[in-house]
User: Fold these one by one.
Assistant:
Number 1:
Amino acid sequence: MGRCSGHRSEGFTVGSAELTTFGQWGKRSDMLVHEQEPFNAEPPTDALAGQAVTAVDTFYSRNHGPIPQLDPAAWRLRVAGLVDRELELSLTDLQDRFEQRSLVATLQCAGNHRSGLLEVRDIPGEDPWGPGATSTAQWTGVALADVLTAAGARAAAAHVAFSAPDISTLADPAQPYGSSIPMSKARSGEVLLVLAMNGQPLPAAHGAPVRVVVPGYIGARSVKWVQGVTVQAEPSDNYFQATAYRLLPVDTDPDTAGPGVGLSLGPVALNSAVLRPADGAAVPSGPVEVSGYAFAGDDRTVARVDISADGGSTWAQADLEEQQSPWAWRLWHSRLTLPIGRAEIVVRAWDSTGALQPALPEHVWNPKGYVNNSWHRIHVTARS
Amino acid sequence: MGRCSGHRSEGFTVGSAELTTFGQWGKRSDMLVHEQEPFNAEPPTDALAGQAVTAVDTFYSRNHGPIPQLDPAAWRLRVAGLVDRELELSLTDLQDRFEQRSLVATLQCAGNHRSGLLEVRDIPGEDPWGPGATSTAQWTGVALADVLTAAGARAAAAHVAFSAPDISTLADPAQPYGSSIPMSKARSGEVLLVLAMNGQPLPAAHGAPVRVVVPGYIGARSVKWVQGVTVQAEPSDNYFQATAYRLLPVDTDPDTAGPGVGLSLGPVALNSAVLRPADGAAVPSGPVEVSGYAFAGDDRTVARVDISADGGSTWAQADLEEQQSPWAWRLWHSRLTLPIGRAEIVVRAWDSTGALQPALPEHVWNPKGYVNNSWHRIHVTARS
């Protein structure tokens, strides 16, 4: 099955053929599937609402190639490059020789809410993700920093690259998936080599037996099925680091841009979304509960969320819920009183520096459709 | 002399009475003086243009009380609170007992470019700073982290407060100026106790004999004439930390808000400005050189600057100049071709996360007029 279509608007109307179960990857049956192969799917916004931690069957799934089924007993992690001691670690080595750590972290696809950009201009060849390419889990594993220390990573090395076995034919040329992060982030302690998700062994669709989780960075850096960690002087030259996942100037042709053009994406930019009510919903007039998430990347936090029931003419502050960790999204809720008729609900967030999201998708449109962090707008109809 | 008026627009027309020399504080004669007492002045934008480091006589000056003239020989820094050893350090102690460090860092007032917000709605009692409440210097002194280590700052302490002798009657109640920063920032190494500015002993107007410089944070945290460093569990309860320098909700009355309302400002939010040509200037038609700064707070960097010659309809990327340090602004320049007539030049910047500044001052207006980081717009007239 090719790309799904029909939900370029945020109403998430999907073809009935896609409302099947996705037992193969352990996903709930109402996932919005953008592609079956590679498997790319997000939950309906309602399924994310009010859940500080997302159930595994609801967690969005973003893939660039076929999902590999690896034998945990045969799996090895090779740590090499600018290190004093190359390592080859089995799953048992990771479990027995390193401290086990847990943290709650939100992952977010750089293409989250691309659908909003498609209303400005088409973005050929990229999936129309809604605001549900974002989920939160409790991740358990070992700190990458501890593994780097065990290997004696050299001080001069500025980057840590990850490699995986899933070959992507979307890359040019076709190649296994890979990425890298700066050494300062790799050393930070919050970057994990993850063995378990929400207290269960990692499922295949999420990178079993071991994946990287880089809290606060775009999901593309959290490499699944990781097999190689390479300490090096330069960023990865993998297609998905050097060419894809870059913010290109508006007038750039992504098919000819090549490596190194534009801005390499790492930390997530401040964003927010309404999760409930759903876009296009009919609601009773009078007080209605509105809820959603806000997320500030890396070391920033969400400091304030504003909600408008009249398209942005007037605003009230939403109530912020407790954050599960510094790396988790901040859920919020608010009670709005809607007059009978159609209403535009808008959300916008401020981070801990007092910075506000940009207002409109036309301000942030870019040729690959990344980082749509413009104010999220939904339309509902209040009935008597 | 009271507030100056007459330059709420960005044209910087000031009363002739203020175009005197400011020899008392060592400032150039064309500074735009918002208040004589306390002395608050910014350079004309043209004076900042193209200078990676700002001359001392051009560096903006923001004060909350009378500028004290301290005797360097009698000056002492008292380090107290949650420490193993209280310290009392003389200037000689700082010079002889600690490593001397230098870094180039930009300081920026939280009220920088408040003038743009005044076009949305009045902000009584606050000075109408233009985009020149921003300057960059080379700062030399000792790392606060080294002094905290010498004092044995306790692990449980989360904040470091600074106190100074300049009493501000703007505070309620009147009190000496003070602020605080999180311990993680205080420990970072880039926060300096500064003795010299651009290679010269610190002048009185900039905090002689010793000031704090907190790179990447709003200028209000870089306390001048510092005399006290207190390691503590909570943020400072000083008026300028607890009540002022907070981003208040739009409908809040700042006169009655009291401590703890809104968002405490720390790291600077991404912003940018056109420095040359000046707003309102007449320029020749055809190619014209446009230049300015962009600044991303704390650990973010400026990744891209766009410039428009037609009010934001079309954009080109500006050329970014080398940054003097990770804590310095990023200067940029571009050559625009202007048709004869009036043109609106607009600048906007992206940070290293792919986040863009908000477009309009009405999006960011707040009752105290802080963090106007909306796109900077100037108007020029091109003549044949």
Note: The longest helix of chain A spans residues 144-151.
Number 2:
Amino acid sequence: MAGVRGYFHPKTATGGSSLIPSPPWHYSGDLVTVEYRTDPARVAELLPEPLALADEDPGAVALIWADWQSCGSSKEELLDPVRAQYKEAFAVVRCSYRGKTYSRCVYIWVDKDFAIARGFHQGYPKKLGSIHMTRPHPYGPAPRIEAGASFGATLAAADRRLAEAVITLREPAETNGFVNGHPMAHHRWLPSIEKGKRLALDELIETGSASFEAGQPWSADAELALFEAPTEELARLEVHELIGAYYRQVGVSWDGGTLLETGTSGAE
Amino acid sequence: MAGVRGYFHPKTATGGSSLIPSPPWHYSGDLVTVEYRTDPARVAELLPEPLALADEDPGAVALIWADWQSCGSSKEELLDPVRAQYKEAFAVVRCSYRGKTYSRCVYIWVDKDFAIARGFHQGYPKKLGSIHMTRPHPYGPAPRIEAGASFGATLAAADRRLAEAVITLREPAETNGFVNGHPMAHHRWLPSIEKGKRLALDELIETGSASFEAGQPWSADAELALFEAPTEELARLEVHELIGAYYRQVGVSWDGGTLLETGTSGAE
Amino acid sequence: MAGVRGYFHPKTATGGSSLIPSPPWHYSGDLVTVEYRTDPARVAELLPEPLALADEDPGAVALIWADWQSCGSSKEELLDPVRAQYKEAFAVVRCSYRGKTYSRCVYIWVDKDFAIARGFHQGYPKKLGSIHMTRPHPYGPAPRIEAGASFGATLAAADRRLAEAVITLREPAETNGFVNGHPMAHHRWLPSIEKGKRLALDELIETGSASFEAGQPWSADAELALFEAPTEELARLEVHELIGAYYRQVGVSWDGGTLLETGTSGAE
Amino acid sequence: MAGVRGYFHPKTATGGSSLIPSPPWHYSGDLVTVEYRTDPARVAELLPEPLALADEDPGAVALIWADWQSCGSSKEELLDPVRAQYKEAFAVVRCSYRGKTYSRCVYIWVDKDFAIARGFHQGYPKKLGSIHMTRPHPYGPAPRIEAGASFGATLAAADRRLAEAVITLREPAETNGFVNGHPMAHHRWLPSIEKGKRLALDELIETGSASFEAGQPWSADAELALFEAPTEELARLEVHELIGAYYRQVGVSWDGGTLLETGTSGAE
């Protein structure tokens, strides 16, 4: 008996229906990053056991927009681009675990189902959203990647705008920011199917890129606004002070992570 | 220390960002059901250990379209209907487990993220799709629920049409079909975050309605067509013989299920 | 030579590509109506020559949500419902023309292209939007059409929420409101393709239903909020005083209108 | 009395609600072009009086995908990119008018309302569609613009795929094809609001770019497939022989056109 196959559901005899192929997954994309400081208590309240606030600059937040093309190892999705292209916006904070600093995505919105599925696997707490980013272009009115060029980035979900930013490039920079620069410490959680029981899945994992290439990062000036919505708490990460903003084009591969511990988050 | 809260991700201090509230979940909706026979081998290949083909009519399939409004116990989603309304189309087969007959959803497409999240929890292998159903209406050209009335139902995903049906109501019926009439035997699967390791989650669960009310079911004549697509295998469940078709309006509540066994599916 | 055919573009040898069929067009739908008073000057500024403010209650506005299924005389769209179903939200005021009171739609958002095309023809100034309305249902948590039942209605465009209402049914009513109860006085405008020339099309037309059937209207209490957006002016029609709210199910046919005059609007 | 303002509807006191600003309009974008020969009779049947088949290669068709960012003279849309970005796919043929060769768009699908409105103005017979194109990128798995790089392009409307192409770049080319290289001869048509009357608008116009800059065109090998759909006739332009394929990045401005004649198309 062959059994059902497929990296993800739906599992079938061939595996050909799986919403996502098995890793490695490859990505080409552009990133708009805006880093700012919020009240560290607002970061701390998003960190379950055994995570703690980062030692330095614990209130730092990165709000990142990304415009991706992604694929599995066959790369076939790239030629049927409805299956490759997606955009996302996500908020990253840092935390401390066993004396080491990690990044952690606390909110994220994407616009395709395969991206949601990868998020379940990687511990990104994904919802659907409507994400837009100005794209650089060598001709016409769209911006080049050069000093003075401005890029807009917006996020909406459930028909409400949640965030918008405009960044204006200043000069080549040494980094693309520091908040999203560590390995990610994420939880993978799923409730028990039985009422009142403990979580069926409660894993703390570490994950990060398997390979990375990138163009010159640019530093930028930024305007950022966050908006309230009845089912969102992004705006609780209030903007107290802008740290910096960045634009960068990257190529990334992802190929699995590491299980750190299980059953310890104390999450409901 | 309060810890993070929320039935689903993202978990926060308040729990207010959770993509879905804790059960019970309540649904109002209309169902178009088309039942047909396919090659039982095509059903068998979708049943992992320890499930087996149903004893009677093992090649029976129900393809069901549903137009839902759903909510948690606060019912607040109903008044912000972008958060309550969704449509879905799904294929159900039957199977046998420990001498008992179960229904099992083998493919399903929905059009909202909260429905995808509920699917992860309930073991429905959900993807995003574009689903449309004719709605009954008491005035104008749309059909009433009465003999001779026709309803169309269509499904597309990734910009390709996958299925379409037209049903024409014949007469009041005793049932809404038999394929989706049993408790559901579903798997909840998630790969390990570590490459080459066994599944992190491999649960066989039983789930079904906590309460159910419904109007008069109607039997119907049907035309049904399934279409090929590069990432879908619905059309492998070829239509060999139509069994029947049905229209029914229902109200349903869901409030959890039962864990049957773990680690036994042998799924990759 | 046969020439190209089709009621609308694209015109072809067969006419089969036309975005809309020739009238009559038939509609089944539900209407949520909220009527309120704004500053009459805000209404007057939307009325071009030769229209003037209505004599009575000139600041009255109706904001209406509609959930439609529509079709041409073949009714084939109803069985491929992606081509039949659409939702809209629109603001209606009244005006006076040659001593007679007309209704006039000043803003409208729809969610399908065939509805946009019909709007060009009928003088409705349509944009795309995301429109949602609670639907009545006989089972489960969704409301019945009965006293105490609440319905939500929301409008967004370009990822921003523009309006939201909740109405709670009070009792059967004699009417469905008065603002949208007159023939429509609409303009059909199109700029010249040549810069600096006068409008290529500047028609004042009268249009209305060719036939109408409807269920019992219900009066309702309402909450209504309008929101600012950079490319929208709906919120300039500020809510000074709520007049009333209504729910009604209707069946409507449209079959052409009357040209009142041309070239007189003075519009840029 | 100030009168209502705005280049397009809805016209208001400020003009700020207009679905499109007044020209000039500026565009940055990438073009995938596939040129092929069909039966010239299938082209001729799409050409109303007084247009005739082009003298040379009259069965030539260009199917073009474009991924645009566009704006008016303020360029503000670029920083709120949900208002600037859109994609389109369109079929172009050539025709002869008064001894001169013109290009003519016979079918076109776009994914934003402002693009539909510009189409009404410019005589492009636009419908809504879902359009996707692989985008070049300097890092990761997405293609660079270089020999051997492959780009996919797909079109769907009303939940059905209508066309898909894959092109593989061969070498730098002298042109981006010849079918879409002439001024456009388009009709602007609108039915009378009164049944049985002649068209209210029946204009033959000439339009083209006011300015144009572009990168190196690349020639490409191509695969192209067209699919049937109940309301579309693109597939009637059957692919008899591929001519060539091209990739090019362009910057374009549009600033009005010329009225050639009125009332002569003989269109229904």
Note: Chain C touches chain D through 72 residues (CB under 8 Å).
